[in-house]
Amino acid sequence: MAPSAELRLESVFRRFGEVRALDGVSLAVESGELLTILGPSGSGKTTLLKVVAGFEKPDGGRVLVDGQDITSLPPAKRDIGMVFQNYALFPHLTVRQNVAFPLEMRNVARPEIDKRVGETLALVELAGYDERLPRQLSGGQQQRVALARAIVFNPRLLLLDEPFGALDRKLRETMQLEVRRLQRRLALTTIFITHDQEEALVLSDRIAVMNKGTIQQIATTTEIYERPASGFVADFVGESNIFYGTAGADGVVTLAGGRTLNVARKVPAGKNVGVLVRPERFSNTAINAFEGEVIEAVYLGSSFKIRLKTADDFAVIVRLPARGKLPAVGGRVSVGIEPDEIHVFDV
Amino acid sequence: MSSTSKGFLPAIPALVLLGVFFLYPVIRMLGFSIETGNLDWYAKALGEGLYLQVFWNTFQIAVFVTFFCLLLGYPLGFLIATTTPFWATMGFIFVLLPLWTSVLVRTYAWMVLLGRNGVFNRMLIDAGIVADPLPLLHNLTGVLIGMVHVLLPYMVLPVYGAVKRLDPSIVAAAQGLGASSWRIFWRIYLPLTLNGIFAGSVIVFVLSLGFYITPALLGGGRVMMIAVLIEQQVRETLNWQFAAALSAVLLGFTLAVYALAQRAMRPEAAR
Description:
The complex is a heterodimer.
Chain A: E1 7-16, E2 19-29, E3 34-38, H1 45-53, E4 60-65, E5 68-69, E6 80-83, H2 95-105, H3 110-123, H4 139-151, E7 157-161, H5 169-186, E8 190-194, H6 197-203, E9 206-211, E10 214-220, H7 221-226, H8 231-236, E11 241-247, E12 252-255, E13 260-262, E14 272-277, E15 290-299, E16 303-310, E17 315-321, E18 332-335, E19 343-346
Parallel strand pairs in A: 3-8, 3-9, 6-7, 7-8
Antiparallel strand pairs in A: 1-2, 1-4, 4-5, 9-10, 11-12, 11-14, 12-13, 14-19, 15-16, 15-18, 16-17
Helix pairs in contact in A: 2-3, 2-4, 3-4
Chain B: H1 2-8, H2 12-31, H3 40-47, H4 49-82, H5 85-100, H6 103-114, H7 119-126, H8 140-165, H9 168-176, H10 181-192, H11 194-209, H12 213-219, H13 226-235, H14 240-269
């Protein structure tokens, strides 16, 4: 199989009246990579997907696949497989006919169609369901059909538009891993759209976080989680404690109310910065201590999730390994955090 | 049980009204046909070639009207369902306005348009396209034009509904998978709007069977449909018994068509 395509967007704009759905988006997806576009609803991620698929024409900018400009190519000529949010299976066609559809549109010979449909259905573990109609399948099976239909014609790109939203949690996790396995195996360049940051972390090679029509940060999953570029990314991905303050000399950040934090990153003195502390990075160290009253304490199996309120009015979420007794609400707890566990970002 | 009977209560005034002023008189009227104590009038209606010919004519005209309504109504309903909101509204106005206008008025309008000296023939002659006026009125052509016009909305609306119900992402999926507009129509739109086509066809066909005003006026007595024949029996020959028998046959035939259609629809309804 030929290596999968690479995709580039060059400053793509799309406006709907006053709303800038895409406000100069540029990005590159490498061959065989799974890039997740993560963002809240209204961030422009669906518009971005539609521009790539060809359902939406950009007002400006270019879409390139393997260097070829496809900006004005109609969807039918783009050779892009897409799994829709509601799967969009053809309700009047059987599983086999659904999967054969893109091959028939390409005038592939019948024996070849039968062979490839059979192989692809086996690949998504739906062998034996050939003659069922979509309505006779469960949600997970329907999704497998949608996936099979999107990859059977060896598309240049695969687009996944929030495909797991309708599935229950357990099935969702199974399908996520399965899609990832398939995508790796076929080395298929894939763009995955979601508003679910957990899902994004599980699936992606890299994540592009979108907000208000722009890409806030595009980086590997660990980078996004450990070193978010902005308060928005820090807040949107994972649980977080975010504080704002002013950098002083020698890696000290002064927060509101005069509290100081020792941080590892050197920041020019006097600069306003944001500080991110992930709840699970707290420990019982005395450095950067937060001592306060337990407002809420929840047992989560592997960890305790505790809300603290300090005397100087800081509300902090802390996750501690679930050892010993769950701290009582109203009791006092003291935690600290090592300077190199604190992430400082520009504001 | 009690909740079912309670649920009926609000319908009682309407049921009483229908029962007293519609159902009872209709049954009485149909009763004329067996007043003689035998089925002679039915034997005449179904046995004599002349009357069978009228039934056959009616059936044929209904088939033609349904066919032309489908031919014109499907593209129109499809267009209204897929165009921009402005044009959809315009389309609706053009489809619904005639529906709200009296059939009588519309039929007279067609007489003005289609007559030997009518607007249409004048236009053709003035433009030099034909030398003599085309026979468009008081014949089958006139009846078909008038009936198709009157019944078109009954085809357009179900087709519109069926196209509108179709999930747009299904069409988008077909496009994305490489289907041309033509293939999307044949493989996606048409099979998924068959129920709309079917519903529209049944309505138009059934309405055509009992159509009176338009064939009476535009046919000028030369196109005999069953309703026209019944009216003649009542008004001209005062043969109420025979008129009742013909009515009963028409009613039976219409109900049979309807029942067949219901049966054919059922697997569709299971979706």
